[in-house]
Amino acid sequence: MAKVHFEQVSKRFGSGPQAVQALEPISLAIEEGAFTCLLGPSGCGKSTLLNILAGFEHPTSGQVLMDGLRVRGPDSRRGVVFQQGALFTWMNVLDNVAFGPLATGKSAAEAARIAAQYIEMVGLSGFAKRFPYELSGGMQQRVGIARALANSPEILLMDEPFAALDAQTRELLQEEIKRIWHETHKTILWITHSIDEALFLATEVVVMSARPGRIKAKFQPRFAQSNDPAVVASAEFVRMKAEIFGLLREEALTAQRQETER
Ligand SMILES: Nc1ncnc2c1ncn2[C@@H]1O[C@H](COP(=O)(O)OP(=O)(O)OP(=O)(O)O)[C@@H](O)[C@H]1O
User: How far is the centre of ligand 1, averaged over its atoms, from the C-alpha of 47 (Å)?
Assistant: First the structure.
């Protein structure tokens, strides 16, 4: 059985003439351990879909099942990493990461042990006592990932986690997240605007249409198991990239028309 089932999930924001139909009924199954990337033009409903699985938003119709049970609100089995680390600025790295385990009743010593483990996993062992303002954007995102992992979620939900980073940092962190995925076998739902990022990381790439979001195409790239950054130069990668680029361009043009007609 799939880990997650979106069953005919639609979302409308507001009512009357101002209402926005963000998602048409969408059905999507996410297998346990899959790395699923959502790609689509701006405003097509990617974050809405992720927020519905997180439990932050409720669908207008349909339902989301996790392990066969309906998602009714946020819970610790789903960890969310935001675009900006969303760290507690007044806490050092260790305390940020230990916060979740402490909140769920672990002792201070156990929470610190768990935090240290995940801080090491994201490569920040020497920075446990630093405060967020002392860290680069890339390091803050690593802390955000460690903080999410420290709650032992079964699924990681990541909404453009690397969007604010420079290109080199982003590429290094893509390799890191792939290594962490290989180590932890977590199920990951990831939003990105980068076709390269999606193809490099994902076991399944879901391309969405312009608003109201629908699933336009799905791809199963074979690069997620590889640790070699050079896969991006392979003929298969380049071919898939061109195909997805064509699909996204059509949808981006539609989205642009919607913007100007508003
Ligand atoms: N709380 C809300 N109230 C009203 N409209 C909303 C709300 N949240 C999202 N929307 C609208 O729903 C549509 C989908 O938004 P969403 O943020 O899910 O898109 P997205 O694909 O994640 O966009 P982007 O790639 O720009 O982040 C947009 O038109 C947005 O303006």
Answer: 7
